[in-house]
Design a protein that fits this description.
Layout lengths: L14 E7 L6 H11 L5 H6 L16 H6 L6 E6 L4 E6 L7 H9 L3 E7 L10 H12 L3 E7 L8 H18 L4 E5 L22 H6 L13 E10 L2 E7 L4 E2 L4 E4 L5 E9 L2 E2 L3 E2 L3 E6 L10 E3 L5 E11 L10 E6 L2 E15 L4 E3 L9 E13 L11 E5 L6 E10 L2
Length: 417
């Protein structure tokens, strides 16, 4: 079997961010330890502390908190770094336990791809666990490509039939969630087979996990997208105002016509500066300072955008509910979209996704870890960008104005007004 069909050609950039996900004890921490060890990302004393042979404790590299070691689970999101000759990687190691789903959302929100680890030795005819389905749903909501690392293949004698059972079960989940790209790799994180180095079954002619990761495409860099530049601070340079922020999408050049804020006010870009130096253009990901043809009454939270930008007050959005307090009608929140903040209210709970059946069900309220579709209204206009087109500006966070508790992470799916 060849699992390389869904892989894109090698990307020419130099950095990919990925998150690990999956149910408790499926081997996420061990897999990350193996990636770090076999890619020579460890110091000599770190490698020596892991032990040898069957006593090798790879999970000890990542389960660093005392509470994690005591309970044998990952709790917090930890960021790890390693590289190959082709690409450098940032790993967001997310917890597998349902209690820490909000940490999984945090990790996925800054990632380009999700590596979903599944312990094949603990599945009955490929039946997937609830938390595996939940993490797959979160990856779908956030628009991530998914790599399914079918782990502990050595424990079942590298059975191709059992591997195929898992692939079939996950393809059904992927179809229900409309996951666009899924790649499967059979591995043994403990032994290192098909992680960085090839090994295990002779029947597997597909790529190793690291080869799949090297071909993952970063989603955050959108040089050909529409301009979105949230203003972080307004500066003074003599009599002129300068507007500073990070370009979330698109390109900006001197002479470009732009729209500023939610009004119909337009302007022309005079100068683009990066680090104090005047440059001919700046692309997504760059922190810049702009000088416009005329001073505008702008503040932090306003957005400099292309002339066709739209602002709205009502949207349909998918949310992952992160608050221990259930939603109740009439409750107000603060919506944060980039640097913009405004009051918001959930007008209607359209449905909650049933994790077991991956179907929509009608309920009266939202509870922690629910994934739902809502009708949302805002006091002030927000960017009407769809998450599928512009992930950075098409997403938002809801939090409680009194406690500052993060209540939900949301993705705009439809504009209503």
């Amino acid at each position: 079997m060849d699992g390389a069909a869904g892989i894109s050609p090698r990307w020419s950039g130099d950095q990919v961010r990925f998150t690990t996900a999956g149910s408790v004890d499926d081997g996420k921490s061990t897999l990350i330890g193996r990636l770090l060890l076999d890619s020579n990302a460890l110091m000599r004393d770190q490698s020596a502390a892991l032990g040898e042979g069957d006593d090798l404790d790879l999970a000890a590299l990542t389960d660093g908190l005392e509470a994690e070691r005591a309970q044998g689970i990952t709790i917090d999101v930890a960021y790890r770094y390693f590289s190959t000759p082709a690409v450098s990687f940032i790993i967001a190691d997310a917890p597998g336990h349902e209690q820490y789903t909000r940490n999984m959302v945090t990790a996925a929100s800054v990632s380009d791809v999700a590596v979903l680890v599944i312990d094949v030795s603990r599945l009955d005819a490929g039946a997937l666990k609830s938390q595996t389905r939940r993490h797959a749903a979160i990856a779908a909501l956030l628009g991530l490509d998914v790599i399914v690392a079918v782990n502990k293949m050595d424990a079942i004698g590298w059975s191709q039939e059992r591997f195929e059972d898992v692939c079939t079960a996950f393809r059904d989940v992927a179809a229900a969630l409309e996951l666009p790209r899924v790649t499967f790799v059979p591995i043994s994180a403990k032994r290192g087979d098909n992680v960085v180095h090839r090994g295990g079954a002779e029947w597997w002619r597909g790529p190793t996990l690291i080869e799949v990761l090297e071909r993952a495409r970063p989603r955050a860099i959108r040089r050909d997208g529409r301009l979105r530049l949230p203003i972080q601070v307004v500066l003074r340079d003599g009599d002129r105002r300068l507007y500073a922020g990070r370009i979330e999408s698109g390109v900006v050049r001197p002479g470009d016509s732009i729209r500023v804020g939610s009004s119909t006010t337009s302007a022309v870009v005079n100068l683009v500066r990066i680090g104090g130096q005047v440059v001919p253009h700046a692309e997504a990901g760059a922190s810049v300072t702009l000088e416009l043809s005329e001073d505008r009454d702008l503040a932090a939270g306003d957005v400099i955008a292309d002339p066709d930008v739209r602002y709205v007050r009502e949207v349909v959005a998918d949310v992952c509910w992160l608050d221990e307090q259930a939603w109740s009608p009439g409750r107000r929140y603060i919506l944060r979209q980039g640097t913009l903040e405004t009051q918001a209210r959930i007008e209607e709970l359209r449905f909650v996704r049933d994790i077991a059946e991956l179907s929509a069900r009608e309920v009266a309220d939202l509870r922690i870890n629910d994934i739902a579709s809502i009708h949302l209204s805002t006091r002030d206009p927000i960017l009407g960008d769809l998450f599928t087109e512009l992930p950075n500006s098409g997403s938002f966070v809801l939090f409680d104005p009194d406690s500052n508790q993060t209540c939900a992470a949301g993705m705009i799916r439809e504009v209503l007004r």
